[in-house]
Amino acid sequence: MEQKPARVRILDAAHELMRTVGLARATTKEIARAAGCSEAALYKYFPSKEELFVHVLTERLPRLLPLLGELTVEPGRGSLEDNLTQIARQAALFYEESFPIAASLYAEQQLKRKLDDRLRTIGAGPHVPMRALDAYLCAEKAVGRIRPDADTTAAAALLLGACVQRVFAYEATSTGERPPVDTFAARIARTLLGGLSVAEERARPATGA
Description:
Number of helices: 11
Number of strands: 0
Strand content: under 5%
Distance between the termini: 79 Å
Low-confidence stretches: none
Order of helices and strands: HHHHHHHHHHH
Mean pLDDT: 89
Helix content: 55-70%
C-alpha cells in the first residue's frame, strides 16, 4: 500500500494525539514519531505547534468557518431557520471535536498565553467563529431578514455558546448523553430565530386602538 504524504501523516498523527492526550501534552516530538518522520521534517511543513494546531482545526475538524463565509457572501439564500440550523449543527460538531483538544490548555496557563499570542499574529483563535457568525447575521440584517434592532453580536455568542455547552454540560446528567446533534441544532436555531427574525415581528398581533 502506498504511504500517505508526510504532511497528511503529520496532520493525522497530530489530530489523534491532540484529541487523546490534549494539546498541552502532544509534543512535536511525539507527533513526528507517530507520523513516522523526524521532528525536522515536521517543522518543514509546520513552523510551530501553534500553526499545526490551526491546521488540525481547519483541515481535520468539521468545517465551520467556510460555511459561515459561504452564507455571508450570499445573504438571503435559503430560509434563515435552515441556515441557523446548519450553522448550529456544524458548530456543535466542531466544538465536540475541538474542545477535548484545547481543554488541557487551561491547566497550562503559560502555554495558553503563548498559544493565544501566536494565534493573534496569524488571525486565528476562538473569537474568529463568533465574528464570522456576527458578520453573517449582519449580512442578513442588511437584506432585511433580521430585525434592524437585533443585537447580532449577542446572538452569535448565544448560538456558539450553546454549542460549546453541549460538549460538557450533559455529562453530569443521569444518562450522561449529549442531545442528538440534529435535534439540538434545530431547537437552538428555532429559539434564536424568535429574537431575530422580521417574520416573527410581523406575526405579532397589533396592539392599541
